Amino acid sequence: PSKSIFIPAAGNAWDGSVQNSGDDGSVWSSMLGTDNVNYGQNLDFLSGSVNLNYYGDRYLGLSVRGVVG
Fold first, then answer.
1. I need a labelling partner for 11 at 20 to 30 A (CA). Which of 25, 34, 46, 52 fits?
2. Distance of CA 49 to the CA centre of its chain
């Protein structure tokens, strides 16, 4: 059986406002940056492309998606 999760294109929070809602989606992973703990790893998608980023500034308001099992 295949498993899947839904990740909304919720955009991100920056400087007190939400940006790119409906166009962009980013979700924090549980991993910190590999070279700097001020950064976090996140999954980012935009218009059909998906990237695993190692440089996301942890102060950005990205979605958090809890997954069990």
1. 34
2. 13
Task: Count CB neighbours of 15 within 10 A.
Answer: 6
Contacts 24+ apart (CB under 8 A), 55-60: 56/26, 56/28, 60/12, 60/13, 60/14, 60/26
> Is the predicted pLDDT of residue 28 greater than 70, yes or no?
yes
Predicted model pTM = 0.62
Q: What is the pLDDT of residues 32-50, one digit of tens each?
A: 877 887 888 888 888 778 8
The answer to whether 41 and 51 are in contact (CB under 8 A) is no
